[in-house]
């Protein structure tokens, strides 16, 4: 009986080793930060602001042409307003908002990708101000003629209050009247990567 159990265990170990030894290795593509972009838009009762944030780095991994993992890091000290409003940029970097001095990086890590081909749904962990939340959004993956791949998520909706950013939030401060900023802001991400 002991011999039979030992044989079964040995067979299981060999089988698992064989599985992992021949599992296809993911192809990792490095994000070109000079060709990739992050845009943002935030709204208040009386209008909106939009701009950009620079990427520090990123990568995308594929099994064949199926996106399997990856992520990116954003440099929060580079927040820019499209209208070049220096006061707004300074405020967005301050502790009221993104606390860029203490938290200079925000990052996203892919945890799951559903569907395959050009249109996918991505779920992952977004970390802002040291707080991590799971988010899901649609994205497109396009293979380019120059051997690069472009992954684009045109509109990712983020609730800032889940990351401790409560400045002029009507859901937190009920007495603001019309002088509030919406809790949700959106970002658009375009990652161009090459093997």
TrEMBL record:
<dbReference type="InterPro" id="IPR036761">
    <property type="entry name" value="TTHA0802/YceI-like_sf"/>
</dbReference>
<protein>
    <submittedName>
        <fullName>YceI family protein</fullName>
    </submittedName>
</protein>
<keyword id="KW-0732">Signal</keyword>
<feature type="domain" description="Lipid/polyisoprenoid-binding YceI-like">
    <location>
        <begin position="28"/>
        <end position="194"/>
    </location>
</feature>
<dbReference type="InterPro" id="IPR007372">
    <property type="entry name" value="Lipid/polyisoprenoid-bd_YceI"/>
</dbReference>
<feature type="signal peptide">
    <location>
        <begin position="1"/>
        <end position="21"/>
    </location>
</feature>
<dbReference type="Pfam" id="PF04264">
    <property type="entry name" value="YceI"/>
</dbReference>
